[in-house]
Design brief:
By secondary structure, the chain is an all-alpha fold. About 60% of the residues lie in helices and about 0% in strands. The chain contains two helices and no strands. α1 (about 5-20) packs antiparallel against α2 (about 25-50). The longest helix is centred in the middle third of the chain and has 24 residues, at about 25-50. The protein starts with 5 loop residues before the first helix and ends in a 19-residue tail after the last helix.
Length: about 70
């Protein structure tokens, strides 16, 4: 997984969870849930790596129509 900033990781984790909820079978659901967990862990690692870094939390606001 490429290194992404925390807000992008959280956005992708959300997308993967939505895909898991809409999965047509248990295998796809499991794969999307694993990816969501991986993105959540990446977000946490990034925040721990640079705790003083200012994060652009507006990037995960759906009202802003974030595209990645």
């Amino acid at each position: 997984m490429e290194r992404l900033d925390a807000p992008v990781c959280l956005l992708r984790a959300r997308e993967e969870m939505l895909l898991a909820l809409d999965a047509s079978n248990a295998e796809d659901e499991s794969q999307h849930r694993k990816l969501a967990g991986d993105y959540m862990n990446a977000a946490l690692r990034e925040m721990r790596r640079e705790p003083a870094r200012q994060q652009d939390w507006d990037r995960i606001n759906p009202a802003h129509g974030c595209a990645h």
